[in-house]
């Protein structure tokens, strides 16, 4: 607890320094004016905030919310002429779902009562105080940012404002590579300001576990387990879900590398083949799974203690062709469909036996082929031959993430087909506003209550120089909201 409090202090200081750049980026996005979903207001009475505005909210959010709410009394258009109400205090009040629903039931959509849908907030005027009423912990941030957006637009009046998410699961995905405290602070700021409610973290070689057995898994720049553990605790204290992803079977450039293979084979004979090629390990090698993979997954799950676990399985090289390296792969070394399916079934069994409350997630591209979707971007439909035929055999409790990054159309039939197969389906987007907007809007219309969206960050905005992501992350998050 002491370490968590120190981290909160450090985060608060860094949050202030990054807040301006992240929030100002939202002024430039083209998602349209921010609108809450219900309002019943008197437009003859505008709201203005007193210079000495006071706040009442849970103490653990004080530094962060002070920084956000300071925008209410600085800059922007001032109310002039006509009738106005001067707000001297903002009071945040948390209610349970049933109490919130009872209070605002006549204005909420029927699906508000769906399992897991706790995110909602309301603004209402009580004398010279503005009362912010919310449900889930994370909604205190959604409400604070929403209030600042309305003030920026000079669109705050006496009355009732009520808002809730259109899509229930909204995750920000990033690769844990060369990340430091500044990156993690910035990512937290982007998630909160973009109305996301969780992270998916691709562990890769950016994590150094305490267990010396896995020393070879961490690159030189890897962050220590203790540091990530403290950040996970901080994120959870804010109400964010934190989900690990481990690249299993495919994309072994950053996981089961030659260094890991040598460490495993030390003292063993050379016939124990682990890698099929430089990108793919052999999921039929049971001794390797039992000795290395499964214990590693146990370490990761014990660290994250998540309700979900992402097992990767995308872009199987030798089957999927994208760059020169893949084209040079000997076809005889490419993973076969039966082994791909068996990997998923074995992992499903392992988690059911060891972590029965954990729901698996995976990428869905290997189940898609261009012949079926000629109007979608070809190189991102990576499952030729018999791979798409595997989908009916994949356990229905695995969430499948359908990723499309640069499609130009407004229809995404692959998403609907995966959903029709009986799987909960999430949409994943990356750094293209047109595709991001179209895909998320498609999910709003076709996804149902269980749908989710993932904004992926395959490169970090600060470390990797992708400054445009300051726009893209809140842009897609607010569309999903």
**What's the total helix number?**
13
| Main beta-sheet strand count, sense and barrel state | 8 strands, parallel, barrel
Q: Beta-strand percentage?
A: 15-25%
Q: Mind telling me the CATH superfamily name of the largest domain?
A: Glycosidases
Distance between the termini: 32 Å
Oligomer: single chain
Provide the number of structural domains. 2
CATH topology-level fold name of the largest domain: TIM Barrel
- Known CATH architecture of the largest domain: Alpha-Beta Barrel
Mean pLDDT rating: 86
Describe this protein's structure:
This protein has 2 domains: 38-163, Chitobiase, domain 2 (2-Layer Sandwich); 169-480, Alpha-Beta Barrel (TIM Barrel), CATH 3.20.20. The radius of gyration is 24 Å and the shape is globular. The longest helix is centred in the first third of the chain and has 27 residues, at 2-28. Strands 6-7-10-13-14-15-16-17 form an 8-stranded parallel beta barrel, surrounded by 6 helices. It has helices spanning 2-28, 62-69, 97-104, 139-152, 181-193, 225-237, 258-265, 286-304, 324-327, 337-354, 413-420, 433-446, 469-480; strands at 38-56, 83-94, 121-126, 129-134, 157-163, 169-175, 198-202, 207-208, 223-224, 241-248, 275-277, 280-281, 308-312, 359-363, 399-403, 425-429, 452-457. The protein has 481 residues and is α/β, with parallel strands linked by helices. α11 (413-420) links the parallel β15 and β16.
